[in-house]
Amino acid sequence: xxxxxxxxxxxDAIDLGSLSxxxxxxxxxxxxxxxxxxxxxxxxxxxxxxSAQNGAPVVYGITILKDTENKELAxxxxxxxxxxxxxxxxxxxxxxxIQPVICDHPENLPAELxxxx
Length: 117
Description:
Layout: H1 29-33, E1 37-43, E2 49-54, H2 71-82, H3 84-92
Antiparallel strand pairs: 1-2
Helix pairs in contact: 2-3
């Protein structure tokens, strides 16, 4: 159980969460997932229109709102998350970080976080 919830642990080949290499190959699971697709109805009708959607790893992002009420606490939380302790905790919970960590607007990064990326 994770967070007091029961779950089924899926094999890396189908869980859409692994960013590692497939054993014995030079193919990443991300590349492998892109080979999976489903057809989504984009326009109902007779016949309906469909669009193919390809698989991709599940990834999350984090941000600090510029008008947040408690910026110091938000920066402290993100610093903890980006620390080795935070990354280890996320890894242990089945949520590994993308490496290297990506920041799309480094010019907006609080000074306290600059050394953590």
